[in-house]
Please model this.
Amino acid sequence: MKAVVFTEHGDLDVLKYTDAPEPAAGPGEVVLRMRAAACNFNDIWARKGLPRVSLPLPHISGTDGAGEVVEVGAGVGNLKIGDEVITYPVNACRRCDACLAGEEVFCKEMRIWGFQTGPLEGAYAEYANVQAAQCHPRPAHLSWAEAAATSTSLLSVWRMLVTRAKVQPADQVLIWGASGGTGSFAVQLTALLNAIPIAVTSSEEKARFCEEMGAAHVLLHDRQDVAAEVRRITGGRGVDVVFDHVGQEVWSTSVESLRWGGTIVICGATTGYKPTIDLRYLWNKQLSFLGSHIGTRREWLHALKLVEQKRLRVPVTRVYPLAEVKEAQRAMEERKLLGKLAIEVA
Ligand SMILES: NC(=O)c1ccc[n+]([C@@H]2O[C@H](COP(=O)([O-])OP(=O)(O)OC[C@H]3O[C@@H](n4cnc5c(N)ncnc54)[C@H](OP(=O)(O)O)[C@@H]3O)[C@@H](O)[C@H]2O)c1
Ligand SMILES: [Zn+2]
Model:
């Protein structure tokens, strides 16, 4: 089969569109004929390699897939050949205390499919094996590319805003990287929670996109003083919640922008993970710093309801053929994207 494979970590040139062995369905697994995949910044971390994280090589990235079941492994009762499904990102043991409690994100064997799994395995391939427990029926009204893009970003955003930060109606929420994959779902979900999304982005075109997603205010971080604008918008009070995945470069602005008693919820650190923290702000302003990672299958089902009810848009703005995964990753690295990028598998 054709797939996008890397056998060593490095820059874009390590990605090869090549022949790879076809997967077989192990016990509890199915093989999907992939129809589409969606891109996440995680793909770039996997390709570059992360300190103290060992990823099995050769590696096929792609955590968000949509396709048809073509093979069913032993012990799978809930799926049959021909079913059209999308994939939940978490591969877990499904039998430990955490898994049985529906908290598979705390399973000791938890691995993000297409990121930490392998050798091979992810969605940037004609065929891929996944745990049957990762599969969910494809939302009928979506294209294959849109269906694939309902997974990692949306799930992570739900956990960050609903479960972790517990955003309330009328809360003001500052959203960094608001025009990207995670950010564009965060803007929409904040608005759906009857809270007020204050989007931060970097260009007029991206600002218009954030407004389309439902942003009440849009700030341009390269030409505006974000903390000063937040003070202006909030009448000097500061925001209730900061939604962040940009990390180091924006950390002090995030802390400065929070109201007393406010919360930062963070799931990533694209610009670096070692910010300087002045701990006095933490106790004097009585702030909460919350980490969030992926999400449970139950959280995903809640988020998917909004998609199925057509209250939440799946903002796929560009679809690349499988052979051009490298170009999609280039666009992400160069920040030349709006919303979600997807891959079509012919
Ligand atoms: N732990 C988890 O569960 C989880 C889940 C999803 C994502 N993440 C992490 O979240 C991050 C974003 O992922 P993604 O898939 O949403 O990526 P993405 O679609 O490429 O979006 C990233 C956005 O970050 C903004 N950005 C980048 N550098 C910036 C800077 N120096 N200052 C301000 N904004 C900056 C860009 O927006 P502008 O150009 O508009 O500024 C860009 O749109 C990644 O680090 C990813 O690993 C983690
Ligand atoms: Zn488990």
Summary: The mean pLDDT is 97. Residues 2-150+314-344 form a domain with the Quinone Oxidoreductase; Chain A, domain 1 fold (CATH 3.90.180.10).
